[in-house]
Specification:
- The complex is a heterodimer of chains A (about 300) and B (about 280).
- Chain A has helices at about 1-30, 35-40, 45-55, 60-75, 85-90, 95-120, 125-140, 145-160, 170-200, 205-210, 215-255, 260-270, 270-300.
- With about 300 residues, chain A is an all-alpha fold.
- Chain A is globular.
- Chain A starts with a helix and ends in a 7-residue tail after the last helix.
- In chain B, helix 6 runs antiparallel to helix 7 (about 140-165), helix 7 (about 140-165) packs antiparallel against helix 9 (about 185-220) and helix 9 (about 185-220) runs antiparallel to helix 11.
- Chain B is elongated.
- Chain B starts with a helix and ends in an 8-residue tail after the last helix.
- The chains are: A mainly alpha (about 300), B mainly alpha (about 280).
Chain lengths: ~300, ~280
Amino acid sequence: MSAYVLRRLIQAALILLGVSILTFCLLYLLPADPARQVAGRTASVDQVERVREQLGLNLPIWQQYGRYLWNLLHGDLGRSYLQRSEVTTLIFPRVPATALLMCGAIFFELVLGLTFGLVAALKRNSALDQAIMAATFIFISMPAFLLGLLLLYFFAVHLGWFPIGGYGQFKNLILPSLSLGLLGAGWYAQQMRSTVIEVLRQDYVRTARAKGLNRLRILGLHVVPNALLPIIAMIGLDIGFFMGGAVLIESVYGWPGIGQLTWQAIQQLDIPIIMGVMLIVAFAVAMGSLIADLIAPLIDPRIKLR
Amino acid sequence: MYVLKELLRRKLAMFGLVVILLIVLAAIFAPLLAPFAPDNQLANGLTDIGEPLPPNSEFLLGTDLLGRDLLSRLIYGARASLIIGLLANGIAIAIGALIGVTAGFVRGWLGTALMRFTDLMMAFPSLLLAIVLAAIFRPSLWIVVIVISMVNWVQIARVLYTETTSLSEREYVMAERSIGASTGRILFRHILPHLVPTITVWATLGIATTVLLEAALSYLGVGVQPPTPSWGGMINENQSYFQSFPWLVFYPGIVIAILALSFNLLGNALRDILDPTLRGKH
């Protein structure tokens, strides 16, 4: 177990190294000039050169990367070009907001996706099943920002049930996390439906039925736990997907999370922030899939960690 | 033939196919179908106080903030969505197939290196990477195509790698090898034909993903640039006023969703039909 975790952590570190190299190269190759961006449009060539020197952008790329990596190993993500502050002090205060948004999204995704998927599977080929499946297709085909705007328009502007934007209260959380979670709920419902149908066919379910176990216990003890396995792996992968969605949803709702910071940084070519976010997201994705893999054997003892 | 017959039996898939054909026709014949030119700021397109007109008998879907006919812009906007959907997804599939099939067929150090690179790309959040790339380069239709294909090849590469690996271990491939068949013959006669169903399914479902990704980029303003009309871009132009003039955001949004939905329905039906392991299960 601990050997397995150690090996996975080493793998995660290698992936992070790869992500940092690749992002660094991509951003280095970009046609725009960050020094010019920082110095401003009206700056003279001399001033731009001075800024370039200050930021260390005049060094060869491998030296720049070496410096970055050295600082990274000391927990330092560098300084923002434009915001005169450490990247860590910019990113970390915003982590709770985005984490909250993601938790809300995962909550809706699971509650709606699993319930509707289970119902659809149990009532297979009924009108209800078809209606649920049609709805899942609509949700997976909707751009996240459109869903955000639609929910905002009907529930906040039109009906006035929820605030239009804002942050800090429970009611602020509902619409943004619903917008982020509904798409996933569609995927989860489809996945849940097909796994439950698969599980219902298994011998152990037939045995349980034959020995007279009641329906609810069969579902709760045999069907649902087995159907959850692929879902758990999906949640691990979702974290990376949510980070992209967060950029869109946070901009629709004015949610003060990492997504907003990233979008700002992208527009201003504030490379240290972009690098920092990429690394944190890659780290979160690696941890998410590690945790998912560690949970799997708790649900299904047949799975061995190798 | 079998595929077509099966498709005709599925109502949802046929709905998808018909909608796709209609949108393709609308895009091709846009100049004949659109009641106005897409970038024409019509003199009677705004109210007296300069507000856009809601849907009415002259402008079926209303006009936008500059007094342009929304329906005409939607019809022309189909071009950008379809070009990007088909081209970006085509390139992504080509890259994915090249990397996945090579890695699965050749194996050795080259295969390992290619798959490690694929794993690395999996760790990148694709939408975030696409936004960064699209923002860095000066956005245009072609940059969007390149950016989307650069982030979307990863999954298909993984899937094709797994399939190629298992195919090249089958008895008939070994038999071919043992009688001295050339690598090219094995690849083109015995491996690639078996990959066609998977590629077809992914090509269809992938267009839905691509259309949504393009819309997201345009919505953020790093996609197709005005004056070229694009559906995501129209939402971007109009969103700050969507509380007063909601149709300016909803109509483009709905056509994006309908196009993606059609490809998803069609792709899903194709998967049911083409994947023999799923046959009879649903």
